[in-house]
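Worked example 3 (structure in, sequence out).
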């Protein structure tokens, strides 16, 4: 008795340790699988982006997912969160330091320079769609693998009309994704000269106010902003901390400080937006988190919070920052994950394509072979199919057809194989008719598309 008990215990022990040993994998933190149901939205985003790009005449570009990490430290900026905290960097066996791209503006500009695109008719208009990687704290609408669609206008003149064109392109894309309430926030952060003067003004203001507060042992800005004050004072303006937000109300405004060419540029951007009736709200605290911007910066939101759906601006200095010659440019990137999350919250759905699919069912081995060949026949006729050829029971196969919402099932049994016919079953009404095999494609096209 006791011995058996001991054995049982030991068995349980080994069972337990084998359970322990069992490995199971999950997606890395902040990353996720895009399952077929989700992909309906992704497909829609890609086709909407492609239509918009085609209309406004942007050519598609695909840059590598890995770039030299120095491209981002030079282009996006050493003091930015993206470069300082969020890049996935790997060292190659050859000793290179590569980064998973956290964004694509610097890579697209790198490509523009590398391929001598300044010799093409200017400006060059490019768009992209794909995954980007940022090691951020994952939360709602914030992922470590995120998808962006981006539009960039590079080269030519630094004309404000291009700033407006980029904004319109982004707005049209969001509208095409069926998001109606679009809120555009816009600001100008000036040029090298006037911005530097403004930064000094800002630092003076914050140093003075925080110094007198610290005498009273009172902290007026958060720890991050204390650091920003020295490294990147513009970022003091878009801190989300409530104390920091309160204090910035009395800080000098950037729009009062930019030089007159920058002011004129901004005024013209707004006038172009007025012409096409794109509403906007001035936000003097909008500065964006990437170093390459100058003059116009903007972000796009929709109702209900949840972070920006997209953002962009002018980046005339980026080409020089990464070793090229002076090249005016302006662009935008939109976050597909956030747009899709919003659509799902609002239960905005896109038509699944499955409607037009025909289900192929069989009974018996000979019919299974015929069904297999029939699928290829239908492929040649442009008719999409679904099937469950591994199942023998007709009932089980028709259950699958039902779950897949196929409007029509084609059923092949021994008799049909022998008579060279096929049963066409209307899955909604259950009515069935026999048609000769040779006429089946024609008959389905008539039923599905009325052709
Ligand atoms: P960004 O503002 O860093 O700009 O990103 C653009 C959009 O990508 C954001 O508005 C947001 O919708 C989405 N996004 C950013 N980070 C995440 C995340 N962790 N999870 C989900 N979505 C995210 C840029 O990347 C610039 N390259 C835009 C640009 C293009 N400027 C000029 N041309």
């Amino acid at each position: 008795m006791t011995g058996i008990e001991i054995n049982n215990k030991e068995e349980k022990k080994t069972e337990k340790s084998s359970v322990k040993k069992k490995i199971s994998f999950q997606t890395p933190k902040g990353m996720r699988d895009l399952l077929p149901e989700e992909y309906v939205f992704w497909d829609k985003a890609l086709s909407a982006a492609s239509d918009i790009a085609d209309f406004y005449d942007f050519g598609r570009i695909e840059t590598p997912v890995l770039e030299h990490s120095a491209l981002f430290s030079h282009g996006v900026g050493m003091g930015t969160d993206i470069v300082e905290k969020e890049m996935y960097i790997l060292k190659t066996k050859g000793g290179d330091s590569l980064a998973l791209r956290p964004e694509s503006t610097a890579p697209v500009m790198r490509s523009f320079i590398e391929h001598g695109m300044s010799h093409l008719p200017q400006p060059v208009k490019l768009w992209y769609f794909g995954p980007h990687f940022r090691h951020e704290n994952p939360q709602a609408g914030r992922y470590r693998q995120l998808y962006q669609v981006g539009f960039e206008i590079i080269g030519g003149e630094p004309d404000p009309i291009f700033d407006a064109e980029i904004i319109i392109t982004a707005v049209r894309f969001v509208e095409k994704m069926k998001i109606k309430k679009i809120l555009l926030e816009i600001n100008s952060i000036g040029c090298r000269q006037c911005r530097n003067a403004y930064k000094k003004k800002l630092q003076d203001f914050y140093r003075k106010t925080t110094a007198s507060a610290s005498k009273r042992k009172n902290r007026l800005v958060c720890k991050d902003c204390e650091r920003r004050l020295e490294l990147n004072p513009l970022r003091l303006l878009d801190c989300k901390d409530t104390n920091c937000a309160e204090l910035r109300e009395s800080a000098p405004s950037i729009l009062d400080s930019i030089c007159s060419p920058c002011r004129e540029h901004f005024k013209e951007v707004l006038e172009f937006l007025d012409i096409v009736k794109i509403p906007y709200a001035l936000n003097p605290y909008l500065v964006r988190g990437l170093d390459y911007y100058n003059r116009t910066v903007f972000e796009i939101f929709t109702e209900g919070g949840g972070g920006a759906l997209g953002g962009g601006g002018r980046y005339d200095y980026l080409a020089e920052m990464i070793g090229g010659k002076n090249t005016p440019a302006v662009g935008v990137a939109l976050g597909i994950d956030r747009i899709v999350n919003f659509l799902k919250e609002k239960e905005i759905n896109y038509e699944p394509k499955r409607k037009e699919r025909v289900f192929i069912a069989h009974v018996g081995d000979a019919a299974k072979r015929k069904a297999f060949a029939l699928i290829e026949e239908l492929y040649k006729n442009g008719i999409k199919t679904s099937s469950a050829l591994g199942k023998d029971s007709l009932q089980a196969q028709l259950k699958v057809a039902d779950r897949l919402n196929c409007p029509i099932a084609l059923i092949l049994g021994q008799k049909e194989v022998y008579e060279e016919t096929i049963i066409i079953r209307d899955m909604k009404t259950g009515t069935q008719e026999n048609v000769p095999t040779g006429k089946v494609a024609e008959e389905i096209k008539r039923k599905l598309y009325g052709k």
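Notes: Residues 1-11 have pLDDT under 50 and may be disordered. DSSP finds 17 helices and 16 strands in the chain.
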